[in-house]
């Protein structure tokens, strides 16, 4: 089973994902990455339920801060406010996706780290998918192999998603 960032001592019953929810999560992945990737082979073991919102926020914030530093610190409250406005975080279940590392956008060459969180609000019948990956520019330019070429840094925080 995928490792949750929440408490390690959760009972297996708390980690069980209902079949209907699993279908929604997989459908969200497919809609987000089609036609390049297909996730129908995913199982509940690729996902975990996150029970601690603060740990999820910390995981997201620490990744973004490591890349964008003070710029992210200034937009972090806005990010979490927009997420809350769209999905009502306190009434949502949070899931994370932990890919198998073989056939998905998170296991391509040069990927340094990634995160994938789903905020599922049953009452609103809505899923918000928050995903990000950091890739090494040098790994994607292996054939060029010009050592003197400076690495580019994009200081813009962009968000993609599907909203109903």
Automatic annotation (TrEMBL):
Protein name: Repressor of RNA polymerase III transcription MAF1 homolog
Highest taxon listed in the record's lineage: Eukaryota
The family this protein is said to belong to: Belongs to the MAF1 family.
Gene3D superfamilies given in the database record: Repressor of RNA polymerase III transcription Maf1
GO molecular function: RNA polymerase III core binding
Coiled-coil zones: none
A GO cellular-component term linked to this record: nucleus
GO biological process terms, semicolon-separated: negative regulation of transcription by RNA polymerase III
Source organism of the structure: Rotaria magnacalcarata
Matching InterPro entries: Maf1, Maf1_sf
Pfam families in UniProt: Maf1
């Amino acid at each position: 089973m995928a490792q949750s960032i929440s408490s390690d001592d959760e009972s297996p019953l708390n980690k069980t994902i209902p079949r209907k929810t699993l279908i929604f999560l997989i459908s969200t992945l497919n809609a987000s990455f089609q036609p390049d990737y297909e996730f129908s082979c995913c199982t509940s073991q690729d996902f975990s339920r996150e029970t601690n919102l603060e740990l999820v926020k910390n995981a997201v914030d620490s990744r973004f801060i490591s890349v964008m530093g003070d710029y992210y610190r200034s937009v972090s409250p806005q990010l979490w406010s927009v997420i809350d406005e769209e999905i009502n975080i306190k009434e949502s279940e949070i899931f994370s996706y932990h890919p198998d590392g073989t056939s998905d956008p998170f296991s391509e060459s040069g990927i340094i780290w990634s995160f994938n969180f789903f905020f599922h609000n049953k009452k609103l019948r809505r899923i918000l998918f928050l995903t990000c990956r950091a890739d090494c520019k040098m790994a994607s330019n292996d054939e060029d192999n010009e050592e003197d070429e400076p690495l580019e840094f994009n200081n813009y925080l962009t968000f993609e998603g599907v909203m109903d």
